[in-house]
Write a structure and sequence with these properties.
Shape: globular
Order of helices and strands: HEHEHEHHHHEHEHEEHEHEHHEEHHHH
Low-confidence stretches: 126-133
Distance between the termini: 37 Å
Number of strands: 11
Bound molecules: flavin mononucleotide
Number of domains: 2
Helix content: 40-55%
Strand order of the largest sheet: 1-2-3-4-5-6-8-9
CATH architecture of the largest domain: Alpha-Beta Barrel
Number of helices: 17
CATH superfamily of the largest domain: Aldolase class I
Largest sheet: 8 strands, parallel, barrel
């Protein structure tokens, strides 16, 4: 643990030592082991629960509590307009009406590469099993919210949608509420719902990310939602990112990709290695995996879609089309095709480290920048 104190109002709000949040990453990346490691290091881990049934949510909270007595959060999406297909991925995929050209593209892609279509081995592939049980819909997310309130973590985070409907109940139980946004308009909307902080991620962020650069987005959101505080995310991998986020007006950082390359992360070694090896032009944003703009390592799947001239289907249909492809590819070790979500910050991730070391280095470096480097570089006379 870093030797010095490094407190912001985020620390007071959540009862933590350092203003560093492990971003929720589904499926099963931000799992109890990684969450507990970050919370034990003095930050706060946030469990990825988007694809979990209510019973699984209760079990995940219990498992996390066995590993740490420190505060942790839980994260799900709150889709308002996504059609409810039911809770079963295969049933949902069977009901979706895929256009024939989209099906033909997938079939050609798989055939040309000798990749099996969603075979059973895929679900046994480490890190891929729960993708096969992708859950969807508004009704389902309301059941998840009930389970999270019952589990009583320190924090609830909505990955998508507006949590205003559950804020009063969460607060009555002592649970703080935050919401993830990528646009000023959405930030203003969620802030009106009485949440405790807005988490805004710039376009460098891994997974679903917006169009606006964090350098522009964060100070704009800070001004527009005040006095609601802001946490900054997207491309933050070290103390330089933390110090910059504080300078932009944020009270802490929401960090995803850096923690994938941590020893406690359960992602397979090939996934971590690809992140360590990735350069600054390795990621792209596309709608080819989920139907919503998403940042990931460039893959052959992108190349095939770009060349096809087809438009992506809306979420969740594109995910239903693509997931069997990603599962099949992963099952035969074809990781170039299977899709790896991560942010542009991967360019500056050079090794796999224990989670506590990632937090400690981040805090020590930010302290050094704020206490020594900046005062030495700036003078006022
Ligand atoms: C593999 C992966 C999975 C993700 N899954 C979720 C999720 O389930 N819920 C969520 O709120 N955000 C999710 N995100 C977005 C992260 O919470 C976070 O905003 C992002 O990782 C921050 O950018 P960074 O990766 O550059 O640090 C995911 C991101 C990645 C890379």
């Amino acid at each position: 643990m870093a030797t010095t104190r490094f407190r912001t109002t985020l620390c007071d709000m959540l009862g933590i030592d350092f203003p560093v949040m492990l971003a929720a990453m589904a499926p099963d990346i931000s799992d109890p082991k990684l969450v507990a490691a970050v919370s034990e290091a003095g930050g706060i881990g946030v469990l990825a629960c988007a694809d979990k049934d209510p019973e699984e949510i209760i079990a995940l909270a219990a498992e996390t509590r066995k590993l740490t007595g420190k505060p942790f959060g839980m994260d799900i999406g709150l889709p308002a307009r996504v059609e409810t297909y039911g809770h079963d991925f295969r049933a949902a995929a069977a009901k979706a009406h895929f256009p024939p050209q989209h099906l033909a593209l997938r079939e050609r892609f798989l055939q040309e590469r000798g990749i099996p279509f969603d075979d059973d081995a895929a679900r046994a592939t480490p890190g891929m099993s729960s993708v096969a049980s992708f859950k969807l819909g508004e009704t389902f997310s309301r059941e998840q919210v009930k389970a999270i309130l019952q589990a009583r973590p320190a924090l609830f985070v909505s990955a998508l949608g507006n949590p205003a409907f559950m804020v009063a109940e969460a607060h009555a139980l002592g649970i703080k509420v935050m919401s993830l946004v990528g646009k000023v308009k959405d930030a203003v909307n969620v802030a009106r719902g009485g949440i405790d902080a807005v988490i805004c991620t710039g376009t460098a962020a891994g997974g679903h990310s917006g169009d606006v650069d964090g350098m522009v987005l964060v100070p704009h959101v800070v001004e527009r939602v005040a006095p609601v505080p802001v946490v900054a995310g997207g491309g933050i991998v070290d103390g330089r990112g933390l110090a910059a986020a504080l300078a932009l007006g944020a009270i802490g950082v929401w960090v995803g990709s850096r923690f994938i390359a941590s020893r406690e992360c359960s992602a397979p070694d090939w996934y971590k290695q690809r992140i360590v090896d990735a350069g600054d032009d390795a990621t792209v944003r596309s709608k080819w995996y989920t139907g919503k703009t998403c940042r990931h390592l460039r893959s052959e799947w992108d190349t095939a879609w770009d060349a096809s001239g087809l438009a992506a289907l809306p979420m969740p249909d594109q995910a239903l089309l693509t997931t069997p492809m990603a599962l099949g590819a992963a099952s035969v070790g074809r990781h170039l095709e299977s899709g790896i979500f991560c942010g542009q910050g991967v360019a500056r991730i050079a090794s796999v480290l224990p989670a506590h070391e990632i937090v400690t280095r981040m805090i020590d470096q930010a302290r050094d920048i704020l206490q020594r480097e900046l005062p030495a570089r700036v003078s006022f006379n």
